[in-house]
Amino acid sequence: MSSVTRGGNPGEVHRASGRFSGKRLITISRRVLLQLRHDRLFLALSLLAPVIMVLFLKIFFDSMKGPGFVVSRFIVPMGAFLIHFFTYILCAIALVRERSHETLSRMFVNGFRRGEIILGFLLAYSLLATLQSLIVLVLLGWLFELSYAFEIYASIYLVIWLLAVISVALGIFLSNFAHSEAQMIPTIPLVILPSVFLSGIIVAVDKLPDWVQPISRISPLYYANNALQKLILPNGSLGDDLSSIAGLLAYGLIVLTLGSLTLKERD
Predict the structure, then answer these.
(1) Total count of domains within the chain
(2) What protein family is recorded (predicted)?
C-alpha cells in the first residue's frame, strides 16, 4: 500500500514515529491481509493443511482404539498442537519473506514504529489463526463425535485461539533473527518437537526427569495442554486451571515484548 511504501521527508518521519498510532497499525494489518488475499495458494494451503492433518489424526486414533487407551485425552490437545505448529510456521516464514523483500525497512523509513509493525502483523495473522482454530475444532468435534456442552466447546476454542495468537507472536519474534527462509527452517523442529514432547500431551510432565520438568515451561503448548486436560474432564470448566490461562497470557506478553525489542530496522 502507498502508505507503507511511499517515502517522506525526515521531518515527517520523525513526527510520525513520536507516538503509537492505531491508524498506522490498521494500515499494516490491511496491507498484510490484502497480500494474503492475493496469495491464494498460500491462503488455501494455510486452511487446507489443518484439515488434512485432522483427517490423519482420525485414521491414527481409530487404529489405536483398545482397552486402556483413552482417546479423548489426546484428541483436543493434539488439535491444539496442530494449530501451534501451523501458525508458527506460516507466520515465521511470511515475516522472513517480508524482511528479504525489504518491506520492513520501507516501513521504518516511512515512520512506522516497532510496536505498530509487530501488532499490525499479529492482528492480521491472528485473523488467519482464528479461522484455522475454528476449522480444527469443528472437524475434531465432527469426526470424533465429541459431545461437550457448548460452554466447554467455547472454552476449548478460547484456549486454542490464545495458543494460536501466541504462536504467531513466537513466529514473529524468532523470525527477527533470520535473514532468509533457509535460516528460518531449522528453527521449526527446534521449536515444534520439544513443544510436543515437553507439553505433557504424550507423556505427563511429572513423569519426565526432574531436570527436564522446569524446561517444559518454555513452551506455550505446556500451558494450553494443562488447561485443556482440565476442560475435557467431566464437569470441567475454564476456572479449574486459571494459572495455566495466566501462564499463556504472560507468555504471549513476554514474546510480544521481545519481538518488539529485537525487531531490527535493517539486517
Answers:
(1) 1
(2) Belongs to the ABC-2 integral membrane protein family.
